[in-house]
Each structure stands twice: as structure tokens, then as C-alpha cells.
Amino acid sequence: MRTHTTAAVVSGAIVVSALALPAVAQAAERPGVSAGFGDFTAKPAHPNTSLGNITFSKAVINGGKDIVLGVATKKTVIVTYTATSSSGVALTEAFLWQGTDSSSTDTITGSLGTGDDPVCAESTTRTGVYSCEAVFHINAASDLKNNGVAGTWKLFLGGYDLYANASYNDDVATTRIKEASQLTLDATPEPVRKGKTITVTGKLKRANWNDGTYVGATGQKVLLQYRKKGSHTYTTLKTVTSGAGGALKTTTKATADGYYRFSFATSKTTAASTSADDYVDVK
Asked: What's the pLDDT tens digit per position in 143-200?
């Protein structure tokens, strides 16, 4: 996956891609015409977020869904968009990035690129209107290690028209890249007499891409839910806040045979998850 440094000659100077990762050794090069962030963001109009006569619109990232990655997830993410120019479109490039200013490596915290140039096809009924598709092959274990954080990522689109004029927009759309989460639950004692106390424990963990492990998620709201035997519907009994190391612990009264589970909705950085249910026999 080409996620890192690309170099281009602009006005006689070598411009390093603004979305280069700190580890230059991870750089990837492709023969032929190479359009990286440096080609676009080095233009004097920056820090404006867009430049040129190609306009980018109707961008959809991952079908409009969050991108959820565990510590070893390999995921293909499709981005579709429209590029429009009266001068035609010769080539486009797509990047996902984090930061405040795409023109400086000092203000970029994460970057992901495509393995190949996006594919664009001109409309048969509207001259100068191109439907494009970019494919990101993301390997969480390598591409997100020390490269950005969970949360909001921006879509940068750049391109050249048929006269080699560059255009770009560094905030066409946004998506959320989230850490996968894991939930466990254990309800005891089993069996239990009706009216007695059931103790429910568990743990909420989230993916840590830098360490390649799942770590406890502290201070998160988790729902304890119950489904009576023979029913297909869960009801929420209470909300539990995860403690140190993601630990969960609460109690409830035994009423009837049934199943207990924990459910974590989601957060800005961590994806939703639900524990396996645990059946408790009530005597």
C-alpha cells in the first residue's frame, strides 16, 4: 500500500509529499507519472483548502460507514467521487489524512494512500464530468502503527487536467476510522434462587494499533441487558461505567431463567460491540 512519501519536482525544487510518514524508509514509489500531496500543496495558493479548475464532489467513503479496524484487520475501503473540469481530467489522486494543515508535515498526524491511481470514467452524456473510484487497502498492523489516531480523517483529492494543470481539495469529505472493541461477560452464581443477587462482571477492550494488542477501555458507558428464556428481545437493566483496565462489575436480582449480555454502543473513536450472552438458570 502506497501510504507514505512521494517526491515531485516543482519550480526546479524537490518537494516532499506533505503527507509523508515520519519513517521515510516506508516510502513507496511508482514508475511513471507520480502525483503526491507535494505536487498539489506546494502551490502558492495554499493554505487555501482548494486550488485549480477541477472540482471534486459527491465523495462517499466506505459506503458512508465508519471504518472499523482491529489490531490485525486488513480492509479494503472504496471511495467514490465526481471530478469535474471543462479542461478534462487526466489523473486524480486520493489520500486520507489527519491534521490541521496539509501543506506541512509538522501539522499532519496521519496519512493513508491508495495502491494504484484512482480510476475515472467520463460521463457519456456530460462532457467534463468524471465518475471516479479510489481503493485503499488498509492493513491496521502496519499502516496505522504510529500513524494517526482513531477518530475523524479527511479526504484529500488532487488531479491534473489534460493540460497538466494541478487542482486539489484537502477536505472533500470526512470519515471516522475507529478501533474495534471487545466485550466479555460472566454472570454468577449459576444456578441461582429467585430473588437472590446475580453478580455480573466483564471487560471492555479496544484495539491499540501501535502495540498490536487489545487494551482496557476505561470510563465508557456499557449497557447490561437481559432476555427472558423463550423471548427474542433484550431489555436494558442498567448502565455500567468501565473502570480501570476496562473492568465491568454490577449486580441484579434473579427473576426468571434468561440470558445476560453487555452492549457497548460506540464512541467517537471506538466501535460498538456486544458480549456473548450468558444463561442463568433461576430455581
From this structure: 999 999 999 999 999 999 999 999 999 999 999 999 999 999 999 999 999 999 999 9
Q: Give the residue from 69, 104, 98 showing the smallest Cα distance to 3.
A: 98
User: What is the band of 37 on the pLDDT scale with cuts at 50, 70, 90?
Assistant: low
Q: Do both 163 and 191 map to the same domain?
A: no
Helix (H) or strand (E) run with residue 40 in it? helix 37-41
- Helix, strand, coil share of the chain (percent; to 5): 5, 50, 40
Asked whether residue 255 is domain-assigned, the answer is yes
Same domain? 133 vs 191 = no
Instruction: Determine how β-strand 108-113 pairs with β-strand 91-99.
Output: antiparallel
Query: Within 10 Å of residue 43's Cβ, how many Cβ atoms?
Result: 16
Structural domain boundaries enclosing 155: 7-178
Q: Do 57 and 84 contact (CB within 8 A), yes or no?
A: yes
- What is d(CA 238, CA 269) in angstroms, rounded to the nearest whole number? 23
The residues with which 75 forms a beta bridge, in sequence order, are: 138
Residue at which a domain ends, from 160, 178, 196? 178
Range name among 42-46, 185-189, 195-199, 228-232 with the lowest pLDDT average: 42-46
Q: CA–CA separation, 224 vs 27, rounded Å?
A: 47
Residue 206 identity: R
pTM: 0.82
